[in-house]
Amino acid sequence: MNKMPETHYLNATKGIKSWLTTVDHKRIGILYLFSIMFFFFIGGMFAILLRLELLTPSELYIDSDTYNQFFTLHGAIMIFLFIIPAIPAILGNFVLPIMIGAKDVAFPRLNLASWYIYMFGSMFAVFSLVSGGVDTGWTFYTPYSTTTSTSVISMTLGAFILGFSSIFTGLNFIVTVHKLRSPGMTWFKMPLFAWGMYATALIQVLATPILGITLLLLIIERTVGIGIFDPAMGGDPVLYQHFFWFYSHPAVYIMILPGMAIISELITAHSHKKIFGYTAIAYSSLGIAFASFIVWGHHMFTSGQSELAAMIFSFLTFFVAIPSGIKVFNWIATLYKGSIAWTTPMLYTLAFLFLFSIGGLTGIFLGALSVDIHLHDTYFIVAHFHYVMVGGTVIAFLGGLHHWWPKMWGRMYNETQAKIACGLIFVGFNMTFFTQFIMGAKGMPRRYHLYDDVYRPFHAFSTYGSWVMAIGFFLMAYYLFRSLYVGKPAGDNPWGALTHEWSITSPPPEHNFESIPITEHGPYDYDKVVAKSTFTEK
Amino acid sequence: MSQSHTNQPAFMQHHFSDAEQQRESAKLGMWLFLLTEILLFGGLFVFYAIYRAWHPEMFHNAHKVLDVTMGATNTIVLITSSITMALSIRSIQLNKIKQTIWFLVTTLLLAGTFMVIKYFEYEHKIHLGQLPGHYYTYTGVEGTNQHVFFSAYFLMTGLHGIHVFVGMCLIGWLIFKTKAGMFSSQYYTHIEMTGLYWHLVDLIWIFLFPLFYLIG
């Protein structure tokens, strides 16, 4: 039986104040964990309410205006408050510095400031929620967003402020990776999670300021009327779309790259096999980061951009498939002849491979101009991005959370319950969203409150699926909270993994390392080094 | 905290292994921050470029109402302030504290001068109704959608003005802290970083001046 270490980062100092003024990257990760998961819950509740309303073709319990507000709030909260910050701010903060042998991120106080900025921005979002909601969709397209009477300003101001939180986290990670690697930790000895975080941080720093100025212009347009996006004053609403997607397409990769980063860790640690194609995976992260900046026009194929521009954007979009494909094939090759452990993180990894591949391939359909004209603004799009964002990012995030949970708290969750929850989420997710591919291809438009009776079986099945998924999430919340109190001590290295964070105690000591860690072997040298697992179920 | 840090100088933070690493980190962080500033302004430069391409005649007509003398004076004032900022960094590198404070005060005064001149320019335009969007009431500019020129003018010089103001606060804080003995030739990261920021603010103005005052 393992024992918990006597002092660690969780009990080094005590009291609420010690948490609210902490500059320890691990504690800031925990602060983010609770605040981001709170908003995940809120966004998830809106999703359940939306699906419930869509059970029948006619109005069930909310009117169309409320429906519009619900899908806007679901989208805006999930995008800006959950999925963009989730992996970097929670797991990145907790793991990245330890992985590269650093005692903290480069700017610990800025890191804490990022959290406060996140909380400040989220208050604006909450304010718009209680002051009448927003009904523009999370994209805030003009001219509707400058004329609707709902709380557009507070929501966009919230997103503007949250942008700074994202920028500062990204900036912190770039400097940390460049300057704080411990002796022996060369660029190509870094775990792939660090590479993924680095590529994500680059996009955060290079794209988010554009969102900042775009939302600022939108706010000024709405309050003062400067005429930049308003056609009545010589402005151009399509320009808003260009500005918006110049950020928001890269932002899609801010969401998926961290997920890929997690999968690279999980797949090798839980199959105890050296990663296949380390350099290819590392460079493909940078490749995706680069490609993310030159494809934004594929969101605007039907918005009236020139045919030539649409053709070029369509062509460039296909390039994203290359680095993504490189990653997927390398992960599968890693599994080949590995000793695969059927742990919860591994189940999530396999779920990711399956779901992300569907999400990625349907993205290719949508990148093709003629197909997109047919599928544009249908449930096919909704299904596609949920397969990438939930089936990809959220599944990877959950996998990572289960992988590093014993490191965070020193305790293990109930593996059986975790596997059941994983299964429920996987089945429920496919029930909810695979149906949406079919009805989308049949022509069901997205964002419609009332729909034709022929889509009823699909919508009903999708709604049942959302309930299965919800049960899975509630079960997860239950056993994770429970593990904090009654979980068995996990020991330093429950998975027998080789990256730095598994060489220190669980939970880690306050300053991570007793002495500066020397990197002696690569992060995935499972062929040379044998790390014993410190945890058994019995 | 481990024992090896007990003889470190006071400015050292615990997670860096030496002062060099701490300084290099701050520098890289600052450059990245400046990059985000350039991108923030970049959106507005795109706004300017698109509408000028659409209305070249109107932009040319509208720019005539701007006061080139005041704009040129402000350009000289800001460039001079960049020189005094650079000199203050040189002084602190040589450990000349008094000289550093003197140069910082000069920089602050020049920044103040810039803001005063800007105030008179703005005041004049507000008086004549040469204002953005709905508030545009001036009739002396030929062309269509003249308000867009003034939208761009006020947004870009306004955001720049906010940056000048933030810079003034930072420089004021530096003067205060330099007097209190926080900086020496051993440690002057804050002065150096503020210097980088101040040069960027200056550089943005060097683009704004010809783009608005010297069209055609």
Explained architecture:
The complex is a heterodimer of chains A (538) and B (216). In chain A, 66% of the residues lie in helices and 0% in strands. Chain A has 538 residues and is mostly helical. Chain A has a single domain, classed as Cytochrome C Oxidase, Chain A, CATH 1.20.210. Chain A is globular and about 65 Å long. With 216 residues, chain B is mostly helical. Chain B contains 6 helices and no strands.
Question: What's the quick description here?
Answer:
The complex is a heterodimer of chains A (538) and B (216). With 538 residues, chain A is mostly helical.
Helix-strand string of chain A = HHHHHHHHHHHHHHH
Domain module tally of chain A = 1
Report helical residue fraction of chain B.
Answer: over 70%
CATH architectural arrangement of chain A: Up-down Bundle
The rounded distance between the terminal residues' Cα atoms of chain B is 64 Å
| Cα-atom radius of gyration of chain B | 21 Å
- Which class best fits the helix and strand makeup of chain A? mainly alpha
CATH domain class of chain B: Mainly Alpha
Main β-sheet of chain B, in a few words?
A: none
The number of helical elements of chain A comes to 15
The rounded distance between the terminal residues' Cα atoms of chain A is 9 Å
Number of domains of chain B: 1
The CATH topology assignment of chain A is Cytochrome C Oxidase, Chain A
CATH superfamily membership of chain B: Cytochrome c oxidase, subunit III, four-helix bundle
Total number of β-strand segments of chain B?
0
